[in-house]
Each structure stands twice: as C-alpha cells, then as structure tokens.
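Hey, resending since the last one bounced:
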Amino acid sequence: MEQATAQLAAEPGSEAAPIQPTARQATPARRLHGEDAIWQETNCYMDLWIELLYGWGLDPRAALAFTVAQDYEGDHFTFFKYPQADLELLYGTVVQETAVYDTLEAHIAEQVARGHAMLVEVDSFYLPDTRATAYRSGHVKTTIAIDAIDTVTQRMGYYHSLGRHSVDGEDYRGLMRLLPELGGNGNILFPYAECAKRVRAPLEGRALSNAVAQLMRRHLGRRPAEHPITRWRAEFPAQVETILARGDAYFHHYGFNLPRQLGANFEMLHHCLAWLGEHGYPVPAAVREAALAIASECKVLQFRLARAVARRRPDACSESLDNLEAAYVTVIEGLLASFGSVEPHV
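The structure tokens again:
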C-alpha cells in the first residue's frame, strides 16, 4: 500500500506541527464560522464540511439551499447537513461510504494517498481540539475529515468544528484504534466512514449560480407540508416540563437538537440568500432578515429555557414562538414568490 505523504509545517502554539495537504486553492472570504455568527457552531458534520470546503478554496454558502426543507421531527429539528447530490452537482465531489474491513489506519492512508478526504466517526475522548468539552473526559461520537496522515510518525491532519487541527502520539493511536484495549476487540464495531472524492472541477460563474437557484426551487418543493414551528409549539409545554424534571444535562441535549438546529439552519439559509444576491438572484431584504431573525430568536428562546431550568419554573416562551412562527412564514412565502418550487416527482 502506498504510504500517504504530507508536508510538515510548524504551527505557533501547537503541541505538534500540523500535517499540510499537498495542494490547496486560495480560500474565499470566510463568511461562515466568523466571530459575529449567531450560532458559531452548527453540528459536527456541517462544521467540518464548511471548513473542508474552505480548505479546498470553495465557498460553502453556495450549497446551503437545502436548509429550506428543515422540518420538525417530533423529538428534534432535522439534523441538517449538505446533501451528497448537491455536493456532487456544485463542487464535483462524490461522497461514498467506505467499506472498513482492515485497520482504520490502513484505509485512511490508502484513500488520502489517492488525494481524497476521509470522513470518519471517532471518539472525542482522543480529539485534542475538544479540550473544552470531551477530550480525555467523555466518550462522545463526532465526525472529522482527515486529509493528511503519516503512518510512520503517527501524525494526522483533520478538519473538525471551526478549523483544521493535527494529532499525534497516544491520541492518534486512540483515534486509529491502535491502543491495546481497542485493537482486536471484537466487541467494538467498525466505525462509519465516508470518502470524499473530487472527481471533476466545481461549477463556476453563471453555471454555478443557475444551479444553486434550481436547487433552491427543488428544495422548496421538499418543504414541510405543515408549519414546523407551529407543530413544535403544540408540544413545547410538555417538553418544558420534561426539561425541568430531568435537569441541566437533559436541557443541554434538548438545546442542541431543537433551538440550536433550528436557529443554525436558518442562519445558514441567510448566508445562502446573501450568496444568491451576490450572484444575480437577489432576494427581498425582508426575507433575508426573517431568516436571520429565526436564528437570533432561537438563541433568545434557549436563554429563556436556561433561566427556567435555573429557577425551576416553566416558561412558555410565547413571544419567542410568536416571532419564530411569523418569521418562518415570511421566509417561505418570500422564497416561493422569488423562485417558485419544483415538486419532488417532477
């Protein structure tokens, strides 16, 4: 098997010099993950793709039209992530599940040597960039995108959360399942892994903007049949009672899967609408502002729930839910007026 090679460069303040991929285009202006973001982090899968696309010199805003289709799933809002078909259409990148039957390290080295990125579910216990949360303290599943690896020195470069990081030593061996307690343990399942292959050049110019507008029409055709926030509101009082009964730890899980996923999703939609406006498909300012209002109002609602937990008193969050319901109507009706929709069967 061909050894994956990488150029090593020093990174000020890092414990290990990061491994740099062999080629990288100029990065476009970073309008996602900025300090002024309402929800600086969305979810692990979205965040790594945002950073990976930036690392490839591509603008991740172009592929965010799918966010209009987010729904209330009963116990969470849709865990939103880039559809594979959209990544292939816009960026020429095919994402496929990888068959893991040898060591995880061997598969990653093989695919990285071929110029691909490997997206792997790993244990945050061994991820140094999660020092503020799970590193060496809890076993939490997350996904990283690996684009550089050296199996001899046992070092690896990867995208996760808000940037690109490196890992070596015992953490590398833990992630690759090479530690004695992990290697050869038949009770531990193979991890889920995907391979991102750049098979053709990304779309550019008018071809790109036309494709994004068409995706917006198609994803509007997939929008929820019923107002998702109204449906959430009907179940919200019972959910608040559950939060108060189960306490702070449960509240954090609830906050991530409901207000954060809803708010971050619509902040991403706001960025997509800004991108469309920059590329010849302007959207009324009221629509863009309403999408951003959903993002900010979800942050208000989450703060109110945190206060309710601290005080042990329920909060119906009526004003926030009123604002969210109205803003959602403005967004969807405005986008339908601007783009129309293509039903899924067409």
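Confidence is low (pLDDT under 50) at residues 1-18.

Sorry for the duplicate.
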